[in-house]
């Protein structure tokens, strides 16, 4: 009887030791995961991945059709620089005519320089022969310009946005803008332009571009706030029929030229 009790006690102690060991190992792994720092390149990768994809301003256009259009924002990886910077092809078009983009750019995404108080910089560049890149992301990969060709077609620098991680409790993951004073821009009477960008959860992108003249008066760009691009939803036939599916009247086409960002 006594021997049986001793065996049971010994087994209980052994179980306790194993359990403690498992707890310690699990705690160490959890602590390692929690304390593992996100590298500068991790931040750049997260931003590049979030920017990529097929996104629409459909919901915003439904809420406020007087100020926002249902636009398609399509982006995808195009190349990688020697230093690891990601080059992303970017285009915007009306939802009803995705094959006719009115805005095309290359984005270059990389970590901010260590001396700057930001995490990721997103620079936009003109494309040397934009016609050659229309619908780049919709094409099979073997029908796209090669990465080395993409790099050779990166033309003039247009803007750079400096992003920081959003504070805990905010909806966004990263947010930022061009520096004070913006960048030179001569479209539609502007002398400079500014851009704001926010990366939200679920790959939602908020983008706000505006142009100003020498007196600081806004001459192009939306005034009500940023465009809100969300990943492409699964649209029903009714949605497709109702959401700006008909060509807008000429007056609306003229209005977009004055209210949006057709800068070249």
UniProtKB/TrEMBL annotation:
Pfam families: CpeT
Annotated keywords: Lyase
Keyword Lyase part of the UniProt annotation: yes
Record CDD domains: CpcT (cd16338)
GO terms, molecular function: lyase activity
Family designation: Belongs to the CpcT/CpeT biliprotein lyase family.
PANTHER family to which the protein is assigned, alphabetical: CHROMOPHORE LYASE CRL, CHLOROPLASTIC (PTHR35137)
Name of the protein: Chromophore lyase CpcT/CpeT
Record organism: Macleaya cordata (Five-seeded plume-poppy)
